[in-house]
Amino acid sequence: MEQLFESENIRYVPVSERLVPDYLEMVNDIEHVGRFIGRRTEPVSEDKELRWVREKREEQALLFSMLDKRSGAFIGNVELMDPADSQAELGIAITAKMQDRGCGTEAVRTVVAYGMEKLGLRRIFLKVYPDNARAIRCYEKCGFREYDRTDEDVFMEITREDGEKGGSA
What is the CATH classification number for the domain harbouring 139? Predict the structure, then answer.
């Protein structure tokens, strides 16, 4: 599988139909992953996931599948969504078995650096559910700061200036 870039422990590859079984295992794990992706409560079908992969590839989305460099195991997906006006939204999902291993922190730092250094982004933002404490800690560790909050979402951002002041980007 073609590698686009890498970090210390992760290979970033294009989203692929070959990885659909891994994607399905991840997104259909409602308790650990799916509930944090659009508050999913129902499983995704293979057909729907295949359509999603094809659409993402067709639109040339900045979506990367992550593989462990040592074992080749699927870690998750990370995406810079809707890049425009020097900013993009970050989205990430990590499989349950790869959580709590530092993969999220490594991936977020790497993709923020990629977005800012390679793509020229000045701001990367995200929204996360308030009950996703693990993700919020990860984002804060990576230099994101909260700029708004509702009952449904916590809004966070990192800017190029944040990174230049010693953040992790």
Answer: 3.40.630.30
